[in-house]
Amino acid sequence: MYAKLTIPERLKDLRVVDKHLTLEQLAEQTGLSKSALGKYETDDYKDISPFAIATLADFYGVSTDYLMGLTENKNHPNTELQSLHLSDDMVELLSSGKINNRLLCELATHPNFRRLMIDMEICIDQIANMRVEQMNLVLEATRQTVMSKYAPGEDDLYMRTLELGQVQESDFYSHVMHDDLDSIVRDIREAHRKDKTTADPQPTLDDVKEKFEQAIGQGSDTEMLIHEFCDKLQIPFEKISSEDFSAFLRILSLSKQLKSPNNMRGKASPIPPNRKARRKRK
Asked: Could you tell me which residues belong to the region Disordered (predicted)?
């Protein structure tokens, strides 16, 4: 995930995410040609006319500075720092470039972030501590009373239930805040699933096996060797994980013999294409 959007990424983000428009629809509503708009959203295209910048900024309701990458603010380019109520340490951190400010903004503007902040505040201010401690005291008092009166033993089902029913404050809040944060991270990750910096989806075991069977059908020496290797050593092919299979392929790819079906050992090297053989001097 890039810390800062490029100009083409900003244009495409505004069109697709904010306005939900196709290039054809955008061309109709702005009067700019579809081909030009498509070029503006291409990474290697940098020649955007001032007229197009002004037109698109007005259409999207953002500043021209935002479109040109001079600011990260679409609608509040001149907000005073004092009104943000940031500490000096926070200002220095945001200005340092050491963190991904874009990711931080998406985290803070997520609908569930306010709930995370509330749960953190409850934990820090120990607002619910008294109630939790009272519940634990009641359970522990009940457990000790039963123990002294009936002596059922520590491993008794009911004694163990009364013990496990007592909530540890740190564990409880860790679980609650983990759930809050996890829901936010999942949504942000899904939103960036198609980003250029996002890793490609890893193939499943079924995908790898399907490709393997296809390769065998085509007579691939490498895949046939793996199949033969498994048969000889009585290794169940269906139990091989995709990671192990991929690692096996990488190891076999180092073999010169597998890369060249005909073993050339002891034979003259063939003449490379587009190159004439030299004549021997007499």
From this structure: 259-282
